[in-house]
Automatic annotation (TrEMBL):
InterPro entries in the cross-refs: B-gal_1-like, BetaGal1-like_ABD1, BetaGal_gal-bd, Galactose-bd-like_sf, GH, Gly_Hdrlase_35_cat, Glycoside_Hdrlase_35
Keyword entries, A-Z: Glycosidase, Hydrolase
Glycoside hydrolase 35 catalytic domain segment(s): 9-327
Keyword Protein biosynthesis: no
Protein name in UniProt: Beta-galactosidase family protein
Protein family membership: Belongs to the glycosyl hydrolase 35 family.
Ranges for domain Beta-galactosidase 1-like first all-beta: 373-486
Domain Beta-galactosidase galactose-binding: 505-563
Taxonomic source organism: Enterococcus lemanii
Length: 593
């Protein structure tokens, strides 16, 4: 069993064109993988590619998760059984519109941490992770009788830095953990990033990422290879057949036929990996955030990506346009009819119980006390919300109450009544409040909407969440703070026997009795902002500001009989009903551009 990279990709001595599609096992559920991979083959692909998100697999330092939709071994085993070659991208950083580009937030506990560098503290953390991850995947290598052909060293490193010794340290670490198939790097298709982010001088394959103009990008890659005397095959490791979507921005679409024409040009040069073939869903709090200069914009829960296979697994017009392009360019490729999922309207259900966050707070989080407010990472918290509480003395008026340097969305309450909501660039603006008691409770609920996954802000000191400096009255900082970490890993401790108060953040419970589990969507129209749990599983965030105002519910999360759906809503809406619908729901929004 032999896979080599020479002038062509050679499998057991025979040249092969890799026609691959990106499928992120962590953005769907294990019960859906077979359907997705079947359709990948149906479109004409012989390979599946996937990233590996470090923060999903090591959510707390030294605590590893390889179960459920994090079961990478089960995914690779299924792909192998279905006859697909595999490309694995387990680099510490993955971008992927995933929180912090896949880097775990606990790295930030070390305030001197320099991510993606040779700093010993960073490499030590990577080494510990790789020692747990890589032995799980070595058995899938082509050299071991499996289907794994090659492994990525780092991801678009030339768009971040230029330390090739760091790249060599990673490559060595990968190989020391039993990886003996060829390694590769992937970067944009232009000179500056190829020079900065590759290990071509060591003979390691360089690939290019782009969504159009194959001639220009591959010509740059050709010149880059020639500089090192390499005659490697050409591969677009990320052919961007669609794009991701941000909150408060219109849904982005790409014309199917235009996309297919670009695919034809790529295949004239060499191999391709469709990014994405199936995008899936940013379950929980794992969505990433775009660096838009002064304004950071988080991505929506749906990672549909306008991909050939949509979020819920249905082939699109783009699927068939690309399928035709593949068959025309590579007549020997086998294509066939795809499978279709069924979406079901599971009806409308009334709320059964509800409770205000403030009433059940002590059941959800253990109080932590400090003289000044601590950021999330200092509290050993990675995701979700942090509630900060202090006391303001005397009945009086405060003209200038300010939260100094917080991220990302702040709601201020006086005696459990909302007085201000600020986010992004408006955080820090003065708020005038009236106190009517001798002791007044100040609560500040801070939502971590996502860490940056790409760009100049992808450095540790910019990624702290919660309140980073403090809260000021007039010109002095307020002291004596209680902290409540609401990571919401479980909602079992929510006490619905406590009080519900209008116009406050609250939990709402619905019990949906259904005859048979089915794929569906929850229509969040009319709700404000928050997250939804289906039988305890966090299916992601909703927000009335759009563009998506529904959440996909894969059938494996439901069951015949009683299903418990809990909504955490932060804007004080009184949720009376929950509706399952058989289609995604969108809202027209204007672009900020």
């Amino acid at each position: 069993m032999d896979f080599q990279i020479k002038e062509d990709f050679l499998i057991d001595g025979q040249p092969v064109k890799l026609i691959s599609g990106a499928v992120h096992y962590f953005r769907s559920l294990p019960e859906k993988w077979e359907h997705i991979l079947y359709n990948l083959k149906a479109m004409g692909c012989n390979t599946v590619e996937t990233y590996v998100p470090w923060n999903l697999h090591e959510p707390k330092r030294g605590e590893f998760n390889f179960t459920g939709h994090a079961d990478i071994e089960a995914f690779l085993s299924l792909a192998q059984e279905m006859g697909l070659y595999i490309i694995l991208r387990p680099s510490p950083y993955i971008c992927a519109e995933w929180d912090f580009g896949g880097l775990p937030a606990w790295l930030l506990k070390d305030k001197n941490m320099r991510i993606r560098s040779r700093q010993p503290e960073f490499l030590t953390a990577v080494a510990s992770y790789y020692a747990e991850l890589l032995p799980r995947v070595t058995k899938f290598q082509y050299t071991q009788g499996g289907k794994l052909l090659m492994v990525q060293v780092e991801n678009e490193y030339g768009s971040y830095s230029e330390d090739t010794n760091y790249l060599r340290a990673l490559a060595k670490m990968i190989q020391e953990n039993g990886i003996d198939v060829p390694l590769f790097t992937s970067d944009g298709g232009w000179k500056q990033v190829l020079d900065a982010g590759t290990l071509s001088e060591d003979g390691i394959l360089a690939t290019a990422n782009f969504g159009s103009d194959a001639d220009t990008n591959f010509t740059a890659l050709k010149k880059h290879n020639e500089k090192f005397g390499l005659k490697h095959p050409y591969m677009c490791m990320e052919f961007w057949d669609g794009w991701f979507n941000n909150w408060e921005e219109p849904i982005i679409k790409r014309d199917p036929e235009e996309t297919a024409n670009e695919v034809r040009q790529v295949l004239k040069w060499g191999s391709i990996n469709f990014y994405m073939f199936h995008g899936g869903t940013n379950f929980g709090f794992y969505n990433g955030c775009s660096d838009m200069g002064q304004r950071d914009v988080p991505q929506i829960t749906s990672y549909d990506y306008d991909a050939p296979l949509n979020e819920y697994g249905a082939p699109t017009e783009k699927f068939f346009a690309i399928q035709r392009a593949i068959k025309e360019s590579c007549p020997e490729v086998e294509i066939f009819e795809p499978k279709y999922p069924t979406l079901t309207n599971l009806g409308e259900h009334s709320v059964t119980e509800k409770v205000s966050l403030f009433a059940t707070l002590d059941k959800l989080a253990q109080k932590k006390v400090n003289d000044y407010p601590l950021n999330m990472e200092a509290l050993d918290q990675s995701f979700g919300y942090t509630l900060y509480r202090s006391t303001l003395k005397e009945a009086r008026t405060i003209d200038n109450l300010r939260v100094i340097d917080a991220s990302d969305r702040v709601q201020m309450f006086i005696n459990e009544q909302l007085v201000a909501t600020q986010q992004y660039e408006t955080i820090g603006q003065p708020v005038a409040v009236t106190l009517d008691k001798t002791e007044n409770q100040l609560d500040i609920l801070v939502e971590n909407t996502a860490r940056n996954n790409y760009g100049p802000k992808l450095v540790a000191h910019t990624q702290f969440k919660g309140i980073r400096r403090g809260v000021m009255e007039d010109i002095h900082y307020i002291s004596n703070w209680e902290h409540y970490c609401l990571e919401l890993e479980s909602i079992e401790s929510v006490d619905f026997s406590k009080e519900w108060v209008a116009n406050t953040p609250a939990f709402y419970k619905f019990e949906a009795v259904i005859e048979q589990a089915a794929d569906t969507f929850i229509d969040c129209s009319g709700w404000g902002k928050g997250v939804v749990f289906v039988n305890g599983f966090n299916i992601g965030r909703f927000w009335e500001n759009g563009p998506a105002v529904s959440l996909y519910v894969p059938s494996p999360l439901l069951k015949a009989g009683v299903n418990e759906i809990v909504v955490f809503e932060t804007e004080g809406r009184d949720l009376q009903t929950l509706s399952f619908v058989d289609h995604p729901v969108f809202k027209q929004v204007a672009s900020h551009e």
